[in-house]
Design a protein that fits this description.
Order of helices and strands: EEHHEEEHHHHEHEEHEHEEEEEEH
Structural class: alpha+beta
Number of helices: 10
Radius of gyration: 21 Å
Number of domains: 2
Largest sheet: 8 strands, mixed
Number of strands: 15
CATH topology of the largest domain: Trna Endonuclease, Chain: A, domain 1
Strand content: 25-35%
CATH architecture of the largest domain: 3-Layer(aba) Sandwich
């Protein structure tokens, strides 16, 4: 089992005693996991008539300030059967969601007013087109497809397989605890971390609403065979919030080339086999551009995983540090 070492102290991996214990910790750390501007709604309400379900909570996400979105939250332990428990819950919600929209709107509005966060919501709404909270809730519930976030202590291939069968876009957040006596260290990747970093950055002019391009690292064989040969790129993990925003894909060819060399317009984004990843298919053959090389005097800039930018910023860049 994993361990963490800090200041010569070994922290042991902690097994949660119950889902309730795990969920309570997620609620306590919600601002760290989802960002201070997003709103975690810790409320359990039964929805649906013929098919009923009770989500663990909801997230009103303001990672994109001008384009907020609603997510359902499922807090789970990996010891639960992903097929019977997690998959069943999400499927029931997907089936019940549209018919339960008015009920969801009513209890979200009640929660916002009764918990004293109305002022926070209204402050966030200044960056959107919405006149008031009522208009805002109408939009995120009825005009946009709902997505889900599964927060789990340990992701598994079985969970990926279950989520790949759902039409609803779903993100997975692994949240783990390591303990030494009464001290705890939490290990997780914050939700929409890269997007939030862009909005909070003082060194870039890029805004989250401008993101429309994903840059992927590629080795020579895969680049030649798939990107150039089959006009596609697959097995990419993409945030649910980015699915309807991506219009282009670019490749960073790893060493010895170490540069972004091509981009293509995306025609479709589809689930990839039995995983919670995606395949991006291109409208036409990729376009070669003037190479954008890795900075020689800076470390840690080479893309190790998919990263987001805008096509305009990418095409103006002279080196990698100017892309993101």
């Amino acid at each position: 089992m994993e361990k963490l070492l800090q200041n010569n102290v070994v922290y042991d991996y902690y097994e949660y005693h119950s889902e309730k214990e795990f969920e309570q910790l997620i609620v306590e750390q919600a601002s760290q996991i989802f960002g201070v501007n997003s709103i975690y709604v810790d409320i359990k309400k039964r929805i649906g008539d013929s098919i009923m379900t009770i989500p663990d909570g909801y997230l009103i996400d303001f990672s994109f300030q001008a384009d907020p979105r609603l997510y359902i939250i499922e807090n789970e332990l990996s010891s639960h059967d992903p097929y019977k428990h997690i998959g069943s819950q999400l499927l029931k919600f997907a089936i019940s969601y549209k018919a339960s929209g008015r009920k969801i709107k009513a209890f979200l509005l009640e929660h916002i007013i009764q918990t004293g966060i109305q002022e926070k919501v209204e402050e966030n709404l200044k960056h959107t087109k919405h006149r008031n909270i009522d208009d805002f809730l109408e939009s995120i519930i009825f005009e946009k497809p709902v997505a889900a976030i599964v927060i789990i202590d340990r992701s598994t291939p079985e969970l990926e397989n279950v989520l790949s069968q759902l039409t609803m876009d779903t993100d997975i957040i692994e949240f783990q605890t390591f303990k030494y006596q009464k001290e705890s260290i939490y290990k997780f990747t914050p939700f929409n971390a890269e997007i939030r970093e862009i909005s909070e950055s003082q060194t870039t002019t890029l805004r989250p609403e401008e993101l429309n391009t994903v840059v992927v690292p590629a080795r020579e064989e895969g680049f030649e065979k798939e990107f150039l040969g089959n006009n596609c790129w697959y097995s990419i993990r993409i945030h649910a919030s980015m699915i309807d925003k991506l219009k282009y894909i670019a490749t960073y060819q790893v060493s010895p080339i170490s540069a972004i060399t091509h981009y293509a317009e995306i025609s479709s984004i589809e689930k990839w086999q039995d995983t919670n990843k995606y395949i991006l298919k291109f409208k036409d053959v990729p376009k070669k551009i003037t190479s954008i090389p890795l900075d020689k005097d800076k470390r840690g800039l080479a893309p190790q995983a998919p990263r987001y930018t805008s096509l305009e910023k990418l095409l103006k860049a002279k080196r990698i540090s100017q892309v993101f």
